[in-house]
Each structure stands twice: as C-alpha cells, then as structure tokens.
Amino acid sequence: MINLLSNLKISVPDKIFIKDPESSELGKRIIEHSILLIDEIGFDSFTFKKLGQKIGSNESSIYRYFESKHKLLLYLTSWYWAWIEYQLVFVTHNISNANEKLDKAIETVTKTITEDSNFSHINEVILNRIIINENSKSYLTKEVDVENKQGYFVVYKRLITRISDMILSINPKYPYALSLASTIVESALHQHFLKEHFQSITNCNDKVSPYNFLSQLTLATLR
Questions:
Q1: CA–CA separation, 114 vs 135, rounded Å?
Q2: Is the pTM of this model over 0.90?
Q3: Taking the CB of residue 157, how many other CB atoms lie within 10 A of it?
Q4: What residue ranges do the domains of the chain occupy?
Q5: Three-state SS string across 39-79, please?
Q6: Which residues of the chain have pLDDT under 50?
Q7: Neighbours of 174 (CB within 10 A)
C-alpha cells in the first residue's frame, strides 16, 4: 500500500490551470502556500499579490499557472475531491457486502482528516478546513454552468456518482440515489462547519461525528 500511495498522482482537470503546478517546484510552492494563506486570511481576502509576497515571487509568476484566484480555488477543491475519491475506492474495493461498502464510503467522505505524508507540499488537514469553509465558493458563481460544461467539476460529480451506485446496490428501486449521495457529501461539510461554529444547532460534537449522523440517516432511509 505504501508503494502504491507513493506513486499516486492526483489528477485535476487540465482546463483549470494554465501550467500544471505539480510540474515545478514553484508550482508546488504556490499550492502549498496558497493553502496556508487562504486558511489564515480567508478566500475573500486572498490575492495573488499577497501569495507572491509569501513565497518571495512576482505576482505575475503565479498568473503563469492560474488565470485567477477562482481557478486556484477550483484546483484546490478538485484536488481534494480526487484525493477523497481515491481513498474511497481503495478502502471499499475488497468489501463485498453492499451495506458495509456504503458505510465505509460514508466514513471516508465524512471523517476528520489526518495529514497524508505522500504529498509533502499539501497539508490535507488545513485543506480540509478550506473545503469546509470555502468549497461552495467554487461553484456558487454566475459562470457555474459554463464551467460545468467545460468539465471543471468532473471529479466532484464522479465521487457523487460512485456513492449513488453504492446506494442503488443496496436498494435498486430507491428513486433519489443521486440526491442522497450529494446530500451525504455536502451535509458532511455543513455538519463539520456547524460543529465548529454553531454548536447549538447540531448534535455533532466531540463524541458524535458527522459520520455517526449521516451513516444512521442513510442506512435507515434505505431499509
């Protein structure tokens, strides 16, 4: 498994970037420090000028990789969902029981993230915080339909489809598999956000995780 993971390259739709940041040390520094800076000041306050100051590079050098900070956010969210998808496929591959397989998938997309040492320039724990706080900003835009047609969200949609297929393997007649699958993924982010900021309107806490809630909700729905 270690050898497999060490050779893993997370694929992001190439239309999102101008130059693949994984292809150079500067590109990897852009990704590494953009994660740290967005976590520190928030996406709304984040600019390429501030990022350039952090990495000791001209703002123009960042534009050689991404045409806008929106495209950078799309890259980060796509990378995250591809990383989650890989883990989901890996941990469910040898599970034959449909209920156990779906439950493991729910655990994977809802769990508290730990850092993956296979990607030294990406802190997955911090990136997870960004996804919880900023993910919706990647698609709540006027351009979402155009970007969707261009394939910017293909990784996210593929993850939803995988979970939907698992739902249908339990109950082939369930009519809302895609809606349930997307609810699982989005509710996981939302419950993590509420757990951190609005504890009075969620039952999730240090003892009850979003996984506990969404696993019970999903499997009870499919009975």
A1: 19
A2: yes
A3: 15
A4: 2-222
A5: HHHCCCCCCHHHHHHHHCCCHHHHHCCCCCHHHHHHHHHHH
A6: 1-7
A7: 14
DSSP 8: -
Distance CA 117, CA 52 (A): 25
56, 62 contact by CB (below 8 A): no
How far is 90 from 120, CA to CA, in rounded Å?
Answer: 21
Q: Which CATH architecture has domain 2-222?
A: Orthogonal Bundle (1.10)
Could you tell me if 51 and 27 are in contact, meaning their C-beta atoms sit under 8 angstroms apart? no
Residue 101 to residue 107: CA distance in whole angstroms? 10
For residue 3, what pLDDT is reported? 39
> What letter does residue 112 receive in the DSSP assignment?
P
Which residue type occupies 85?
Answer: E
pLDDT tens digits for 78-125?
999 999 999 999 999 999 999 999 999 999 999 988 766 667 789 999
Within 10 Å of residue 96's Cβ, how many Cβ atoms?
Answer: 6
